[in-house]
Every structure is written in structure tokens, then in C-alpha cells.
Amino acid sequence: MARGDGRLSHDLDSLQGGDKGPQDACGVFGVWAPGEDVAKLTYFGLYALQHRGQESAGIATGDGSKILVYKDMGLVSQVFDETALSSLRGHLAIGHTRYSTTGGSTWENAQPTLGGGGDSTVALAHNGNLINTVELRDLVTERLGAGASRRGELGRGNTSDTALVTTLLAADPDRSLEATALEVLPLLRGAFCFVFMDENTLYAARDPYGVRPLALGRLERGWVVASETAALQTIGASVVREIEPGELVVIDENGLRSHRFAEAQPKGCVFEYVYLARPDAVIRGKVVHEARVEMGRQLAREHPVEADLVIGVPESGVPAAVGYSQESGIPFGQGFVKNAYVGRTFIQPSQTLRQLGIRLKLNALEHTIRGKRLVVVDDSIVRGNTQRAQVRMLREAGAAEIHVRISSPPITWPCFYGIDFATRAELIATGLGVEEIRASIGADSLGFISEEGMTGATEQPPSQLCTACFTGRYPIELPEDGRIGKHVLETLPISVRTGHDAALDLGVDERTERDAEGVPLGLGGGAADALLRP
Q1: Domain limits of the chain?
Q2: pTM of the complete model
């Protein structure tokens, strides 16, 4: 295994004091294809899923006798080279791109995780987030003894929910992995799409709610599973179908077989359609790009305005901007120029350079927008910092009016199912109404799509969609004792009230223990502890 130093540069938006937007769920990929270069197929598959996680990447391969894992911090292109890929031989492989939602962003938490030993080893990659992590930790101790935390992934310092699942899957060497999986999977609560493997066999499983997407594809000499259909198409696989909620798929030399480990209760994440998934992905029969264009059309119907030009914020706001233009009859144009070569790592400017207003990510196209009344379409507002900077930039470039339109409703609640939003206190819509948000970002008008308009654009039954980040209605019940959070295995648990009735008085008790810098113990950053710090 390759080990990095675990250091990541600050997020790009920190250059401009910008918004760290909704961070994507992870991407998973698996392939069973004897005679093919499975490591390179996985590498290219992960490239297609890079948008789902940019913190770390890894690939595991199996050749019938052993499993090799290579993983490190960084983008897919930074982690792997020809030498690394050529060392990963076998007939099956799994891969992962990570954005951390349980456990910090460290090398120890990079995936695939590895468990077991001797004649049978398990490698696992996970997209999603479990909400009974503490319960699973206790189950590991119950089944394997107190020393379990000093062995395997847990002993190497892995603090993710994925490590616990890996440990449970590898806990009984006398049982087949298939049998163990059918016993362990029903014990998990939350959102999960797993691809995992032993030395010979590829497995894929999706939680009963189907919160995150997972698709099955066919190669001429094998099978593929991936978080999004676009990754299947990237490597030349045909799309067969989605892995069903509550389904375990097993692929080996005998072909493909399916098990139902739980009854399907579909609650697909609506934010996959709004922002997370690639526009060319197909989820439950709906092309994501088409859904986004329809959201833009609906925005124009719900929030019309007299204007000269519609522009989209690259990249995710562009399809909705096209739809707004089509419905309103206002011409669509390019108002921003995006630097395609800015990644997560870069030389940070000094404070003096920051004050010069360095704009690495976006620049306004002045000759297009000067003197124009603009409709600016974006997918979401989190803190409002990004939109505030964009409005200021457009004003400086000479825009006469700026009317902001958002293709999702106001985000007021955190996600515990695999997206890392800001905390409730940082979500601008938690404490402000639409008119107050408009004034805060400096726009001439502001309109959010309605919940009904957004869900209608997906062409999915509203009852089969998760809209918790907009409504606070969590389809998978959260732990009553509040033992939930990104760093729940790294810090002490704190008892909090959770759920839709937990309003803004959800604060940290003054008696809570704090570290040397005054940070409450048991609290991490991002969505995981958002209910702890309203």
C-alpha cells in the first residue's frame, strides 16, 4: 500500500472567502473481468466519478490468491501512475474516490479498506453514510472482543464507518463472505452503496432506501458496477440496470446472482438530480441533465422577471439556465469564464495578494454583460458567500440589474446520508427569509424553486425522494441519543436532540468538555455535527 502524508491544500474557494458548497458523496466502482486490465478499467472509471470525491483515491485488485490495495490522498490523477497501475494485477478490482462524511480526511481513512487475513481477505469501498456507527462499534467489540480496535483497519487508526463494516464482514473466517454479508447488511442503518471483494468474487450492495445511486453494467468479458451510469459508459460497458434498494449482487466465475437482504423502500436523494450527479448520468430512468433543464423551466414559471440575458454559474447552474431561457424567451449567454485547470491544490496567495481580489475560479465576461439586466441561475445557496462574490463581480463588470434564481429550495437542514453541508448556523437560509438573503447577497431579486417544482422535474414520485436537507423530514430515523457525527469515532459522544422538531435552540451545553482551543469535544466540521451547532 502506498502512503501519503495526508496533507491537503485548502479548498479553492478559500481564496476568495468563498462558499464551500455541498460536498459530494463518494464514488465507488467495481469490475469483474478475467483477461482485462481491471486496474486501468477502474482507474478510468474513477476518473468519471472524480466529481463525487476529491480527498483521496484507491484501487484494490484480486487475482484469486491475494488482494493488493493502492491508495493515497489526492485526485485520481495524482494518486496513480503507470507503475502503480501495472503492479495491480488480477481479474477483479474495486475503486473509490472519497469525500469524508464519517471520519476525518486522512490517509488512514482512505479507501478501499482491508480486513481479514490468512486465506480470506475483504476489501471494501463505500458511498454514503451510516447513522448507527456507535452501535456498530459496540457490535464489533461484542463479537471480536475489546482487542478488535487494535487490529486491522481500526488498529491502523481508521475512524470511518467503512472500517467497522469491513471488520464485521471479515469477522468469521469459517463462513463465506456471501453468507456473512447477508447477515451484516440488515444491521446497517443509513445510506450505503458498497462494492467489496475477496480474492475471487465481486459484491455490490445498496441500502433499502436507495439513497445513493448504484448501477450495473456489462462488458464483453465481465461485469461492472459504479455509482453513476456515466462511469460505465466511460469504459465501454453497456448499462444493464440499477442495483435495487436492499439488493446484494454477487459476481464470480459462475455468473451473477442476486439476493434480497431487505425490503425496498425507495427514498432517492433529490440533490443527486440538482447537483451531485454528472449531467449525463441516468437515475431511475431520468437523465440528470434533462431534470436540471426542467428545473430551470419551472423556475421561469415560478419566478419570471424582465431581463436581457440569462446566464448560468458553471458548471452545475448552466442546464437550469438553459431551461430558464427556453421557458422565458430571454436569450441565454455566457456570463462567466471558468478556469478549467484549477484543482484542489494550488499555491496559496499572501494576504496582500488576496486583497487584490484574485479570481482563479471564475471571471465575468464583461463585454457580454455590460449594461444588461441579468438572470443568474445557480443550483443552490449554502452560506451565500459565493453568490455575494458573484453579484459583486457582475456589478463591477457593468451589469445593470442582477436577478438570482436558484434551482433548489432553501437548504435549512444538514444531510446525514452522505453529503457534507455546512452546519445549521452557517446555512444562510436557516435564519433568514428570501428577502433577507437577497439583501445579503446584493441581488436585485431572488427566487428559489419550490419543493414541488424541483421534485416534479425529476419525474419521480415525491414519496420516493429524500428531501431532508430542504424539509428536515429524515426518511431514515436518526439516533435518539444524538450519537451521530462525522467524527463520532474520534471524539466523545454528546447527547443532543435531533429531528425536525429540534429548532434553533439546539446548542452545545455550556458544561460540555472543550479542548485547549475551546472547541467542544465530540464536535467535528460539516454536516455530521450540524444539529449539534445550530
Answers
A1: 25-266, 288-469, 479-534
A2: 0.83
